[in-house]
Amino acid sequence: MNSKKLNIGLFGFGTVGSGLYDVLKRINSKNVEIKRVCVRNLSKPRNADVAFTDNADDIFNDPEINFIVELIDDADAAYTIVKRALQSGLPVVSGNKKMLAHHIEELIDLQARYNVGLLYDASACGSIPVIRNLEEYYDNDLLTSVKGILNGSSNFILSKIFNENMSYDNALKLAQDLGFAESNPSLDIDGWDSLFKLIIITVHAFGLYVAPEKIFTYGISNMGDDDIRFANEKERRFKLVAHVEKLKDNRLIMSVMPQLISRNKYIYSVEDEFNGVVIKGLFYDKQFMFGRGAGGYPTGSAVLSDITACLYDYKYEYKKRNDSQLPEYTTDHSFRVYYRYSNLSDLALLNFESISEEYKSDKYNYVIGRVSLQSLLDVNDELRKRNIFIAAYPND
């Protein structure tokens, strides 16, 4: 297929879509061209020498278009586009991690049924090729965990707080001013973006799909000055960490939450809008992948990498999904946390198995104790609503 020209029907011309356009123009590719772009608002001015439309049929009915790239924010619309592309026998690249996190099992089946490829490396960590690495180089039972910083916006905020002593509010505003965070930043700072990426990564790392609502997800929006001071006193930093780990009895745990990270950890030094992923195995210990996780050019170049792979008929094989010994997802696992709360009813929300440290004052209360993932999941929504902050607190 590498001698064939790809005429792309592109959906979306925002930061990543326009970034892809600029990257293609810069490299002057002879066998990849954006033929037409479908956007929501045709009247918006765009500096691009390409045909625009607001009707998806104009792309799907164009006989010259033989490849679809979907780079839009709307997960429902993205699902419709990707499904239609696969059913039409058109290979497709998608960047919509929310859509993939909800529909990936169905889309895997559609790929097989219509014998056509769907690639989405760009959906997980921007410029870091984590999915293809998990597919090609970690396709055995030696893999034990994948954890890391999967969201550049929240990491930028935390970097400003711990490196420049910014307040949380000022760091968030700066991230918004620079375009790293949206005007409604909940997707990033409350952990949802990291969750969707973690679900996709887990499919490729361990072969198992776990629905979003089954995974404990908690972000940094409730973090306050007292929490920051606690971290500094312990010579640690808060990082928003997505984590999947296979336990000894072939059970799998997953979570997205802040962690108090010590200096000896790789992700301690991942700063600003960068992402960092630590892959751990039984015999090769830890391997670290680092790169820009957001932005038009880094993500656009990752999309181009997916497109180029399709030139050579590359497809994900999902080998681990065919394993007869798939791990079993569980929330029956306890670990140490830092838990800052306001009153006794907040403390009563969680069923602590043990408490090793406790502090109370007029304005600031916390406990250090062990709690299970299931007990956190049971009160996940309530934890977000109250003046509470919780973070995993590893022993090392």
Q: Name the CATH class of the largest domain.
A: Alpha Beta
Question: How many distinct helices?
Answer: 15
CATH fold-level label of the largest domain: Dihydrodipicolinate Reductase, domain 2
Q: What about the largest sheet?
A: 7 strands, mixed
* Arithmetic mean pLDDT: 93
Q: Helix/strand-derived class? A: alpha/beta
The number of strands is 17
| Terminal Cα span | 50 Å
How many structural domains can be distinguished in the coordinates? 2
Classify the beta-strand content into a percent band: 25-35%
Described by the principal axes of the CA atoms, the overall outline is globular
CATH homologous superfamily heading of the largest domain: Dihydrodipicolinate Reductase, domain 2
Q: Can you describe this structure?
A:
By secondary structure, the protein is of the alpha/beta class. 36% of the residues lie in helices and 26% in strands. It has 15 helices and 17 strands. It has helices spanning 15-27, 56-60, 75-87, 97-114, 122-125, 130-136, 152-164, 168-177, 186-189, 192-206, 225-233, 296-311, 344-347, 373-378, 380-385; strands at residues 6-11, 32-38, 51-53, 67-70, 92-94, 118-119, 143-149, 216-217, 236-246, 251-262, 274-281, 285-292, 328-329, 334-341, 354-359, 365-372, 389-392. The strands form 3 sheets. Strands 7, 8, 9, 10, 11, 12 and 13 form a 7-stranded mixed sheet that branches. The model has no long low-confidence stretch (mean pLDDT 93).
